[in-house]
């Protein structure tokens, strides 16, 4: 791999992120002539269950305050899965999924039920994990017409059971971690293309773009995690500012599948994942 490469990993976690954030991001990406990888949550939006985290985890409360979550996600989102029924996320917008693909972007599998995986994976049964993948992959095939080639775990959370199920699907790469460099994940034998840069919800929008640019000025390969609810919502101007700065830098912005094809897999380190708490995160994630 030669030159400076930036991959855009766009996670779609909620109904409002799909309905409003994705169209806004498609407009922005088209304006700059760049392509991205959209990791889609397909099934129910149970975001309202986050109230349980507010009661259990003070770091989660700080994160919600820092990101202005009420404005970021909206009032109805805070009730989905509790006082309001959970709407389906990508499954509710088949035309929008087709638009993403038609405009040359990559569509990857992110989640069936994002919130329950993020909060409850450790306590769920092996059967629940297998069923979660089955339902999500079936929904992806229904929308896209073929099985997903990549998986990016919700909230960068995995365990050995999840990776055992991953091995049963024809994924060609993973993007489940916050490691600093691509590696071969030993349990699955798949290449991991990690999100090494911080996302705005972790570092804050005030000065956040400048902090990301400091890392990009080092050159090399980087993956920027983007969230449809944030950079496709109230933080869209900050995302635009970042892309404007990047247009004057020596970077190629590509889809993650293109990065997978560029990597010399035989030269990558082989190692397992581990979990760690990163700055700005409420719970540990895969590193």
Written description of the protein model:
The protein is an alpha/beta fold and 287 residues long. Helix content is 40%, strand content 16%. It has 13 helices and twelve strands. Strands 1, 2, 3, 8 and 9 form a five-stranded parallel beta sheet that branches. The protein has a five-stranded mixed beta sheet with strand order 4-5-7-6-10, with no helix packed on it.
Helical run tally: 13
Order of helices and strands: EHEHHHHEHHEHEEEHHEHHEHEEE
Number of strands: 12
Structural class: alpha/beta
**Morphology:** globular
The Rg value, from CA coordinates, equals 18 Å
What is the percent of helical residues? 40-55%
Strand count, sense and barrel status of the largest sheet are:
5 strands, parallel
Query: How many angstroms separate the termini?
Result: 23 Å
Mean pLDDT: 91
Portion in beta strands? 15-25%
Main features:
single chain; 287 residues; alpha/beta; five-stranded parallel β-sheet; five-stranded mixed β-sheet; 13 helices
Please summarize what this structure is.
It is built from 13 helices and 12 strands.
Layout of helices and strands:
Blueprint: E1 4-12, H1 15-32, E2 37-41, H2 51-56, H3 58-66, H4 69-73, H5 94-102, E3 106-111, H6 114-120, H7 126-144, E4 150-151, H8 160-166, E5 173-174, E6 183-185, E7 190-192, H9 200-203, H10 208-216, E8 221-227, H11 230-234, H12 236-246, E9 251-254, H13 256-262, E10 270-271, E11 275-276, E12 285-286
Parallel strand pairs: 1-2, 1-8, 1-9, 2-3, 4-5, 5-7, 6-10
Antiparallel strand pairs: 6-7, 11-12
Helix pairs in contact: 1-12, 7-8, 10-12
